[in-house]
Amino acid sequence: MLFTATSLLASLYWALSCVPEVSAAFPDTPFTTDGRDIISASGEKVVFAGVNWPGQGMTMLPEGLQYNSIANITSFIKQDLGMNVIRLTYAIEMVDDYLGDSPNQSLKATLANALGEDDGATVLEQILDNNPQFTEETTRLEVFDAVAEEAARQEVWVLLDNHVSKAIWCCSHTDGNAWFGDEYFNVYNWQRGLGFMADHTKSWRALAAMSLRNELREATGSTTAEPYTWDTWLKNVIPAATGIHDNNSLPLIFFSGLNYDTDDSFMIDGTTTDDGASFEPSSYPFADKIVYEIHNYDNGATSCDDVRNYLYDNAYGAMNLSDPAHPNKGPVVMTEFGFNQEDGSSESIYAQCIQDVVLDAPGGPAGWMQWVISGSYYIREGTKDFEETWGILNHAWNGWRNETVVENYDLPFVDATWDE
């Protein structure tokens, strides 16, 4: 059979067009920002879809390890849910203890300190049974390293989130962690801690981003906190972000606003403070690393339009390239939202609206990270083995808390994020 040159070329073109596009090898970092998009090292657009894995509680350990292995928990996130990022939270107190050579850093010591000698010993044995790579002398930081290593093995990115200074449950106006200069919120230690973690995580292949601080809020009744203003915010967060970038230029830097990170308006609107200062992304050495993060827990919402409009004005307007009211363009990631998994809340106006807003964001979908993977906590607000009804996993971290919610909410949300 004879082929002309034209037919051969046509056949070759058809064959090549049928070859699926191959993405760059994980982790494809460092990421940068371009307008409203996050861009990988190979030039691909990146959209985060993931979950929060807390590690900032009294034990200062990633939760759930007394019930399951790091590998299995990560597998729930990546293999079963199909997510691509973990927001891993930590406390500055962990860094302070490391730099101060505290005797409470080992698994044995930190569990005894948080849970008491007897309960601490019991939980320690459970953790070691599930995670035999550890010993009782393994340190908190080494456990975080192990989570990051497993995330890389399963090709899940990590957003390392500074959640609190003192390792306690977050958040309230009176917990001492609320605002710069609050009882536990020592600004020097915080900035030092961010710089330390930026340097420490250079070996984490999975590291994609670091946050500055979770849910900044007014410190009600504090006699030591600085004024609750954007001026105070600006003078503290820019040196902190610079410290991250100077120590490790790889990660994106997530900026959170005021009022429990529900208000990013000052950042995206380009307005000036009472002192005449403004947020000027292009002037910073980390200009192409800035991501705006937003939280929303308007669980009692009766109108999606109200939720949508608020989120646009306070965050997602930054992704609308044609809206001059929000000139500081950049990607927006909803790093916290969530709801009770047991009472039908997944079908609420709020839960459905969050999906709509994120998927329909200008140039979207935008990124998101749900609160929370945890089925339980080592200890929370004084209660040991605390039940987390908002957790995607059950109390024992070995299955879903509500399979119907996973099938009808989480999996379709992940799929829609990739398919848009």
Automatic annotation (TrEMBL):
Pfam families membership: Cellulase
GO biological process, one term: polysaccharide catabolic process
Signal peptide, first to last residue: 1-24
Keywords attached to this entry: Glycosidase, Hydrolase, Signal
UniProt domain Glycoside hydrolase family: residue ranges: 72-347
Matching InterPro entries: GH, Glyco_hydro_5
SUPFAM superfamilies assigned to the protein according to its UniProt record, in alphabetical order: (Trans)glycosidases (SSF51445)
Keyword Signal: yes
One function term, GO molecular function aspect: hydrolase activity, hydrolyzing O-glycosyl compounds
Family, similarity comment: Belongs to the glycosyl hydrolase 5 (cellulase A) family.
Protein name: Glycoside hydrolase family 5 domain-containing protein
Species for this entry: Hortaea werneckii EXF-2000
